[in-house]
Amino acid sequence: MSGEKKLAIFCSASYDIDPEYNTAAAEFTRRACAKGYVIVSGGTVKGTMGVVADAVRDCGGTHIGILPRFMEEFTYPALSSLVWTDTMSERKERMREGTSAVVALPGGIGTLDELVETLTLAKLGKYDGRIFALNIGGFYDKFIELLDYYVSTGMLDQNSRNLISFPTTVGELDELI
Q1: pLDDT (0 to 100) of residue 1
Q2: Is the predicted pLDDT of residue 96 greater than 90, yes or no?
Q3: Which end of the chain is more exposed for a tag (fewer CB within 10 A), N or C?
Q4: pTM recorded for the entire structure
Q5: What b/e readout covers 116-130, taking b as 16+ CB neighbours within 10 angstroms?
Q6: What is the mean pLDDT of residues 96-110?
Q7: Residue 167: strand, helix, or coil
Q8: What does the alpha-carbon distance between residue 89 and residue 92 come to, in Å, rounded to a whole number?
Q9: Which distant-in-sequence residues (6+ apart) come within 8 Å of 1 by Cβ?
Q10: Where are the alpha helices (DSSP H) in 59-169?
């Protein structure tokens, strides 16, 4: 699949979230597929990951799922391809591999881990894709405040802070990718 533009989506595995987040996830995924992006995700049926997978399937897109072997029971059945990993760390690395961007949708601690690690790698020059966190409904406001606090205390330089964008609507995110 070399030569194709790939986009990693980090998102929630929870079912107990605001439906607005899943609506936005499906809409964004459809728009990314329409732009020809190969979607790389966690590849499970759970929560927003399942919503993303359904949207890719429904629009006829290409979907690469990256799963650690211990999550096999949650594998989405209609992936275009599936990559097995042994650890969550390897999963994150493989999800970013060859992508031109990562998009974090509203998600839990796993999504935050993926987002922070990607930002750290970009700061260190080890990831050159663009980084977005969809701040729908102000979901990422507290994280934005934390990053800005880090800048104000000298713990993070402004150039590194600027490596991540926080669009507030699917339309804005669509324009940026």
Answers
A1: 45
A2: yes
A3: N
A4: 0.93
A5: ebbbebbbeeebebb
A6: 97
A7: coil
A8: 5
A9: 38, 62, 64, 81
A10: 88-96, 109-123, 141-152, 158-161
